[in-house]
Design goal:
The protein is of the alpha/beta class. It has a single domain, classed as Vaccinia Virus protein VP39 (Rossmann fold, 3-Layer(aba) Sandwich). It has five helices and seven strands; from the N terminus they run H-E-H-E-H-E-E-H-H-E-E-E. A seven-stranded mixed β-sheet has the order 3-2-1-4-5-7-6, covered by helices on one side. Helix 3 links the parallel strand 2 and strand 3. Helix 1 packs parallel to helix 2. The termini are far apart.
């Protein structure tokens, strides 16, 4: 059984950006349709709901996280990235697994933290698949790390919204626009 990702510095960086950006997005579009990829503990979902976002879908590869978010009252599906998602969204958020594989890390937590051998494989696949699921004018909020290998943003316009400096890495919160 895999662990549900416990909120950490990356989660709080994303929460800070959501607090700054989502109210503006709701003002522009009261029917804002949001997807949280990799919902984990549901902390981002709870904040989105409190901000007034009514149309939220969550997806996670970890079935324990899916069940947990359903118990919190959210529409959450078990999906490997966009595998089971057909619709389009105005905002997609993803606190992605971004760390390079470390054989010392327990297998139970690797699903939530490891983004592949170099840390960028899941992110690059997410970016590739996301184009078919983002409405025109939509945005993606994506978290990466200085420890993540080069990310291929594949034609998206990118803007650094915020970062968090830690003693062993930097976390980056990107806004991607089509």
């Amino acid at each position: 059984m895999y662990e549900i990702y416990t909120p950490a510095e990356d989660s709080y960086l994303l929460l800070r950006v959501l607090g700054d950006e989502v109210p503006k997005l709701i003002q522009e579009n009261p029917d804002l349709k949001v997807l949280e990829m990799g919902s984990g503990s549901g902390i981002q979902l709870e904040v989105l709901k409190k901000m007034g976002v009514k149309n939220i879908l969550a997806a996670d590869l970890n079935s324990a996280a899916v069940e947990h978010c359903k118990k919190l009252g959210f529409d959450c599906i078990h999906s490997d990235l966009f595998e089971k998602i057909k619709e389009k969204f105005d905002l997609i958020i993803f606190n992605s697994p971004y760390l390079p594989r470390d054989i010392r890390e327990p297998k139970s937590s690797q699903l939530a933290t490891t983004g592949g051998k170099k840390g960028n494989e899941i992110i690059n696949e997410f970016i590739k698949q996301s184009k078919e699921h983002l409405n025109k004018g939509g945005k993606i909020f994506l978290l990466t790390s200085s420890r993540t290998a080069k990310v291929d943003f594949k034609g998206y316009k990118k803007k650094l919204l915020d970062k968090e400096d830690m003693f062993f890495e930097q976390l980056f919160l990107w806004e991607l626009k089509n």
